[in-house]
Amino acid sequence: DTEVTQTPKHLVMGMTNKKSLKCEQHMGHRAMYWYKQKAKKPPELMFVYSYEKLSINESVPSRFSPECPNSSLLNLHLHALQPEDSALYLCASSQTGKRGPNYGYTFGSGTRLTVV
Amino acid sequence: GQQLNQSPQSMFIQEGEDVSMNCTSSSIFNTWLWYKQDPGEGPVLLIALYKAGELTSNGRLTAQFGITRKDSFLNISASIPSDVGIYFCAGPGPSGGATNKLIFGTGTLLAVQP
User: What chain A residue is nearest to B95 in terms of C-alpha separation?
Assistant: First the structure.
């Protein structure tokens, strides 16, 4: 299995809703990531998990809450979002370590989030 | 902080033409990655470069790691309609430990006219 699976593919939520995005990989990768991407812009890092522990939080507002229940799963809990949070949310995973032929991330297809 | 600037910002070409794009940085990178993103999908890794001067091919794609380690180039030969998408360069950002924090370039949008 060489994929990162994200669900749902599309999500529309109100500003008072609570929802969760899910990400799953079975490649044995111990680093997992959440990125946010606006249209025609590069992905922007939100969170990094390494060995199921949060290692990087790029000053993301607390209305975004990540969770890594085990080495294969990564969740992003959403609460009280704003319309400007509408974007494509990408999950990725990678092997740990800084060099080597498998350095690059494997991305999921993303969740297209619309906040109304 | 580290920034990666790509040029051109967009390209509109005829099928069969060759394409060249580049990525420059204000600081040195030890690894360069090239990704392609189709509409509504996540980025897919095309080529990874690990050594200054390295030239690597993947089918019709060829990428080079600049000698100064501050730039990289991607060429696509004989373009076809499915080459359409946004091409991003990426490199490792400053980080400690074992995590690989990637910084993405500004992207080059490629449109191919059949």
Answer: A56
